[in-house]
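Help! Submission page says 'invalid entity' but I think these are all valid:
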Amino acid sequence: MNTQGIISKEELLKSWQGHRALARRVIEKFPEKELFEFSIGGMRPFAEMVKEMLSIAVPGLESIVSNQIEKYDHNLPLTTKQELLEHWDADTPKIDALFSEIAVDRFKESFKIFGEYEFPIVENIQYFIDNEIHHRAQGYVYLRALGIEPPFFWERY
Amino acid sequence: MNTQGIISKEELLKSWQGHRALARRVIEKFPEKELFEFSIGGMRPFAEMVKEMLSIAVPGLESIVSNQIEKYDHNLPLTTKQELLEHWDADTPKIDALFSEIAVDRFKESFKIFGEYEFPIVENIQYFIDNEIHHRAQGYVYLRALGIEPPFFWERY
C-alpha cells in the first residue's frame, strides 16, 4: 500500500490463521448437543456463529478474488460437530490459497462485500477476523456457563 | 516494515480507536450494579475486564515508547461506571499520542511486554486490540443475559 505499512500481507494471514486455530479449539471443547442447542439471553447457539464464520471467510475471499459481488448465505447444511470441523479444516488451505491470490495493490481498493459493505479490501478482511474473534469470545462464555474450561487465549497454533 | 505492508501505522491506530469507541458503548449500556457484580460461569464482572483493558493499553504503550519493561497492574482504583468512563476517555488521546511516538521502524522490533511476552511490537499491539475485542464480546453476552440489547458491532465512531 505504501512504505509506511507495518503489517504485511503475509503477517495478516498468519494472524488470521492463528485466530482460526484457536476458534477450532473452542469448537472442539463443546459437547455435541450444547454446540447446537445451548444459548444465553436468546443468542444463537455457538454452531450458528461458526456457520456464520464459515459463510464469510471463504465465500468472502472468493468474491474478492473473482471481483464478483455475491450475497452471503449462513444456512450451511452442517448438523454435527464433525461436519463443522471438517468444513473448518477444508477451508484452512482454501483461505491460504485465496488470500495469496489477492495482489498487494488491491488491498486498498474499495469493495462492496456481499453487496452490502463498501470498504477497502483490507478492512473487509480485518472485519472478517474481528468478527471471528468476537463470536469466538461468546463461545468462551458459553463454555464457562457449561462448566467447561476454554482454551488459553494465546493458543494460536 | 517493508514495501509489502498493507496496513499502515495510522490505519492500525484508527482501527483500534474504532474498537475502543464500541467498547465504550458497551460499558455505557451496563447498569451500574451489574457492571461491577454480574457474571456468568465464574467469570469476572465486566468492570474487571475493562480495568484489564485500561491497565494494558496506556501502560503498555508507555512501556514501548520509553523502552522500559514494567510489570502490569490490573488493580485500578475505579469503583463506579463514571470513573471507568472518565479513565477510558482520558486514555483516548494518550493512546493517540503514545502510538504516534513509536517510529515506524520499531514495530518489527522484539519487545518483552510487561516482562512476559516477547514478540515484535506490532504483534504486542495487535494482541492488545484482539484482547479488547475478546472481552468486549463477553460483555455482549452479559448484556444479552441481562435482557439489554448491545450496540451494533459495526458502530465504531
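Support: the input was valid. A stray whitespace character was the problem, and the output above is from the cleaned input. The two ends of chain B are 28 Å apart (CA to CA).
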